[in-house]
Design brief:
Blueprint lengths: L5 E4 L7 H14 L3 E4 L6 H17 L4 E4 L2 H6 L4 E4 L6 H8 L4 E6 L2 H10 L3 E4 L16 H10 L4 E3 L18 E4 L1 H4 L4 H18 L2
Parallel strand pairs: 1-2, 1-8, 2-3, 3-4, 4-5, 5-6, 6-7, 7-8
Helix pairs in contact: 1-2, 1-8
Length: 211
């Protein structure tokens, strides 16, 4: 999935909606290939309204919009897909609810979970957290060795997740990943356009050397 190359997972960081949407648009303008809208501390109504506005942006740039966890939001505003973690509904239930056409991403830390995800209908895997991250409290880390094993043994596209920044991108050389998911390095960048362009070049080098 070429859409996984530079995968933006949004973070709120107390931004106003206006600033948040500005950052998302700048990221889409400058090279992110997929956007996952992650909202943990807001109302359902606000999440829905924000998702509608984000989709207007991603549609302009022909970029898939994935909703984190919330199947109801995904279906209500017709996002391109949903991404679920370990503590959500069973994968096969999610697939039955969203249907065969929408994208289903599944977070995994282990080979066993990756195999289960493939069997039950996932389209791609988010593997991690590879590095420490502030987006989740005390996340279980996933080694690069486990990442490589999942890629070798489970025939699904894989995006590496968790604390990924431009300065640790070389970690993924020769791993066989399909892309990287980035949160703070984009959302908190002083110059979003420049950061996304730079990240895109870095990940393209990694992917080329992984062939």
């Amino acid at each position: 999935m070429k859409e996984l190359k530079l995968y933006l997972v949004t973070g709120r960081y107390e931004f106003s909606d206006e600033m948040f949407l500005k950052i998302v648009e700048e990221a889409c303008q400058n090279g992110v290939t997929m956007v996952q809208l992650r909202e943990k501390d807001t109302t359902t109504r606000h999440f829905y309204q924000l998702a509608v506005e984000v989709k207007q942006i991603t549609d302009r740039y022909d970029i898939p919009l994935i909703i984190n966890d919330r199947i109801d939001i995904c279906l209500a505003m017709d996002a391109d897909g949903v991404h679920i973690g370990d503590d959500e509904m069973p994968i096969k239930v999610v697939r039955s609810l969203i249907g065969p056409e929408k994208i289903l991403g599944v977070s995994t830390k282990t080979t066993e979970r990756a195999r289960e995800a493939k069997k039950e209908g996932a389209d791609y895997l988010g593997v991690g957290a590879i590095f420490p991250t502030k987006t989740k409290q005390n996340p279980q880390r996933t080694s690069v060795e486990t990442l490589k094993t999942i890629i070798e043994e489970v025939e699904l596209p894989v995006v590496a997740i968790g604390g990924i920044k431009e300065d640790n991108m070389e970690t993924f050389k020769n791993t066989g990943i399909d892309g990287v998911a980035v949160v703070s390095d984009i959302m908190l960048a002083e110059n979003v356009a420049h950061k996304v362009q730079s990240l895109k070049k870095s990940v393209e080098i990694v992917l080329e050397e992984s062939k």
